[in-house]
Amino acid sequence: MEYAMRGRLLSLLRAARGAVNGLAPTIHGNRTPIMPLSPRRLTGFAHDIARGMEYIADKKIVHRDLAARNVLLDHNGICKICDFGMSIDLEKIKSSQAHVRVPRAHHSESRFKFDLSARSFGIGRHHSHGHEGLGRHGRGHDTKSRPALPIRWMAPEALQYHIFSRETDVWAFGIVLWEIATLGCTPYPTLSGREVVRNVPSGARPEIPPDCRPELYDLMQRTWRKDPRQRPTFSESRNCLARTLCQWQLEETDTSNTSEYLDVSGFSEDLEQGMVYFNRRISEFECEI
């Protein structure tokens, strides 16, 4: 994978949220003004991710851990999807099961039943906030023997029946759209992990983000339809976002002063120190990682 020098999208979003809320710390005794990310830039992030996931879906790969924390920014500020530790290759699974007779009514090349108790799928790495583990009975678990799953990004069928597909990735993409619109907030902030598992299959959905364009929230809602067959494909999502980008460009050309917004090209991240850097307008400031 190519080197993504700008760090994680989630860090940039949260840094921008701190700027919007006036939470940037004093730098060398002086308060440095920090500009927010433009709506068009945020939509551009979403478009990059949709384009990347369209490619992944075309390769019949299910990511299963799509979230803003698993999106990196390259030197041009383009989003790159990372962390395929939980991904599955549907073609390989189909080939490995070819010798096993599967009832026609239950066979699908685009779905995968995940066994939560299978040790072979355990993920031995640290998971960030909001990435709770889901055990067999919805309780905590030993990560050496049970997999940790990103339940706040999981679709109802994944939470209920442990079924993963390209459609469950589409659901997670909708949650990523919400993360982008809220500048890195944690999904379902008022719900515990156990409540998410219980309430999402019953219809709970993230609330509309403040100042969110109607067409973006409409796309989010379509990705969160309970019936996976009614969710948009990544290609449809990319086209929708491309149209929105064009509209943003027209509106900003007519009414906006783009100098009011942050230039992402100077952003980088130091994971060891928990810092993010802007080598142009901003020298350095702390950020929640």
UniProtKB/TrEMBL annotation:
Signal peptide: none annotated. Residues 130-145 have a biased composition (Basic and acidic residues). Pfam families: PK_Tyr_Ser-Thr. Residues 127-146 are annotated as: Disordered. Residues 1-245 form the Protein kinase domain. InterPro entries: Kinase-like_dom_sf, Prot_kinase_dom, RTK, Ser-Thr/Tyr_kinase_cat_dom, Tyr_kinase_AS, Tyr_kinase_cat_dom. This is Protein kinase domain-containing protein.
